[in-house]
TrEMBL record:
CDD domains: IGPS (cd00331). Gene3D superfamilies: Aldolase class I (3.20.20.70). Pfam families: IGPS (PF00218). PROSITE patterns: IGPS (PS00614). Residues 4-249 form the Indole-3-glycerol phosphate synthase domain. Its EC number is 4.1.1.48. This is indole-3-glycerol-phosphate synthase.
Length: 271
């Protein structure tokens, strides 16, 4: 069983337990539930922003501990001050050391789109995402049958949440893209051996239809690569470890974005 299958099997169990503990009726009473979501897509396309979705990631299956005691308040505020377009908060506890409260903390201190980064298999998690203040959710093509993915995407949109569809191949893209998805992410991490290669993003860039906002996810380790991804047509860049390995991730993000902007400024302007 690969790690994604293991995580997904666990999620079904987790959802069943959470439904008992916190019924939907309770989640709907959350103050955030009535909030109007902020558009991830719109923020990624804003020219005054970097396009970075900066992630809070305490640990991961591939790396173990990364930054387990990170301050979500300080880091999320610092990421946005550095020029990130949006935040990604991992809420899975068992594999990533995150929690719903991390997202609620980020929501409390920031006015920006927030992606709930988790492994969605059930409508319950989408209601939960809305109740903790998320603006967008992730749906992973490798984890869901296309018809089921479409149902979940439609349900998310009915609550005002945007959907980031994550793919690893052209086949997944062709099978799972549907009318409820406006943002597609190519995940550069191979979930069988955990190796990351941005080549996958370059390979798939032209297959993603025009009009869809494109994100490159995982393994983006330097500003030069991000410039090249932008030139290849990517609007967004999901970055976790590159920042989170630093004691002060927000400072790493500030330096990274400064370097990125300097590289862009050196590029000749094309008509
Ligand atoms: O990061 C992992 O080890 C991992 C393993 C299994 C499923 C998902 C995993 N990561 C989630 C992500 O997609 C990344 O956290 C995100 O794209 C940021 O990647 P990075 O910049 O490489 O931290």
């Amino acid at each position: 069983m690969n790690i994604l299958d293991e995580i997904i099997a666990y999620k079904y169990q987790e959802v069943a337990e959470r439904k008992e503990l916190y019924p939907v009726k309770l989640l709907e009473k959350s103050l955030y539930f009535e909030n109007t979501c902020m558009s991830l897509e719109r923020y990624l396309l804003r020219p005054d922003k970097s396009g970075i979705i900066a992630e809070i990631k305490r640990k991961s299956p591939s790396r173990g501990d990364i930054n387990p005691y990170v301050s979500v308040e300080r880091t999320s505020i610092g990421y946005m001050q550095a020029g990130a377009s949006a935040l990604s908060i991992l809420t899975d506890t068992r594999y990533f050391g995150g929690k719903n409260e991390d997202l609620m903390t980020a929501r409390k201190y920031n006015y920006c789109p927030i992606l709930r980064k988790d492994f969605m298999v059930d409508e319950y998690q989408i209601v939960e995402a809305k109740s903790i203040g998320a603006d967008a959710i992730l749906l992973i093509a490798a984890a869901l049958e296309p018809a089921r993915l479409k149902e979940l995407a439609s349900f998310a949109r009915s609550l005002g949440l945007e959907v980031l569809l994550e793919v690893h191949s052209k086949e997944e893209l062709d099978a799972s893209l549907n009318e409820y998805v406006t943002v597609v992410g190519v995940n550069n991490r191979n979930l069988k051996d955990f190796k990351t290669s941005v080549d996958l993003s370059f390979e798939l860039a032209n297959y993603i239809p025009k009009g869809i906002t494109k994100i490159s996810e995982s393994g983006i380790s330097n500003a030069q690569v991000m410039v090249e991804l932008k030139e290849a047509g990517f609007h967004g860049f999901l970055i976790g470890e590159r920042f989170m390995y630093e004691g002060r991730p927000e400072r790493a993000a500030t330096e990274f974005i400064r370097e990125y902007k300097a590289l862009l400024a050196k590029k000749p302007v094309t008509a």
